[in-house]
Design a protein that fits this description.
By secondary structure, the chain is an all-alpha fold. The protein has one domain. Helices cover 77% and strands 0% of the residues. The chain is built from 6 helices and no strands. Helix 1 packs parallel to helix 3 and helix 3 runs antiparallel to helix 4. It starts with a helix and ends with a helix.
């Protein structure tokens, strides 16, 4: 149930209903947590919710047409939940931190490559690709901090709540 609560929070922030500082969002952490705590057959739910919110943002808020870079982002969502699945049995602080950093770096690389490839904002040459990555660096910094913060918060809360439930079961016996 906690995974769904974190997902709702992430979608609310992603769609700007709950504003946070720019590029400081719980989306990556929610995907990692969902992947770690929910069965694979439910992984379509976060992808659908975030894709719908992405379409809403692109069309209604920013006035952009739907484009192939959105498909790349949606595939990345699924990949990050699969990465989160690796944390299902062994979610140590080190592993959660490493998964969060892996997710941050992979999103930076994949999403900015997709922007460069799909949109005409940058020349289609190595210099244009580097310009795209350089322009995205300020967003990357906030994204890494947010990913680490929310991953620690979500997995920490999950750990504390599961231990609290175990203690109450032990005391009740």
């Amino acid at each position: 149930m906690l995974a769904y609560l974190f997902l709702v929070f992430a979608v609310a922030v992603h769609t700007r209903f709950l504003p946070l500082p720019f590029s400081f969002a719980p989306v990556t952490a929610a995907l990692l947590y969902f992947g770690a705590r929910r069965p694979r057959r439910e992984l379509w739910i976060p992808v659908t919710a975030l894709a719908a919110s992405g379409i809403y943002l692109s069309r209604s808020v920013y006035g952009y047409p739907l484009s192939a870079d959105l498909l790349v982002t949606w595939a990345w969502y699924a990949g990050i939940m699969l990465l989160g699945g690796l944390l299902a049995r062994h979610a140590s602080a080190l592993r959660v931190g490493a998964a969060s950093l892996t997710a941050s770096v992979s999103f930076f690389v994949v999403s900015n490559f997709a922007v460069w490839a799909v949109w005409s904002m940058y020349p289609k040459n190595p210099g244009g690709l580097m310009a795209c990555y350089l322009a995205a660096l300020p967003f990357f910094r906030n994204g890494v901090v947010a990913d680490l913060f929310f991953a620690a918060l979500f997995f920490g809360m999950g750990h504390l709540l599961s231990h609290r439930q175990q203690e109450s079961v032990t005391v009740a016996r």
